[in-house]
Design brief:
two-stranded antiparallel ribbon; 7 strands; alpha+beta; 2 helices; about 100 residues; five-stranded antiparallel sheet; about 20% helix
């Protein structure tokens, strides 16, 4: 399976994967923001001959992906869109460690 890249550059930002499991993915951006989205896998197609993890497109933000300006916004997204998500405390611990 083709996995999401752990780090990459896009436009004017560097992206670093902070957390990923079969429910949730979080990237930090070099400008201090975060991108939080639901983990998705797509089936092989004409261009890619293997299953592949999906990074959201611009149109996906607000639907199954969210851009967050700070850790409090990430927590709000987790509460609103990942209700009952069992690793919320671990995710917040990782995010809090960024401020240390």
């Amino acid at each position: 399976m083709r996995e999401l890249r752990e780090t990459f550059n896009k436009r004017w930002s560097s992206f670093k994967q902070l957390y990923k499991n079969d429910v949730l993915v979080i990237y930090s951006l070099s400008n201090g923001a975060f991108e939080v989205f639901k983990y998705k896998v797509k089936a092989p197609n004409k261009l890619i001959n293997d299953f592949f993890e999906v990074y959201p497109s611009s149109e996906d933000f607000g639907v199954w992906a969210w851009s967050c300006s700070n850790i409090k916004s990430v927590e709000k997204v987790l509460n609103n869109h990942f209700n009952g998500y069992g690793n919320k405390e671990k995710v917040l611990e990782i995010l809090d460690s960024l401020g240390s």
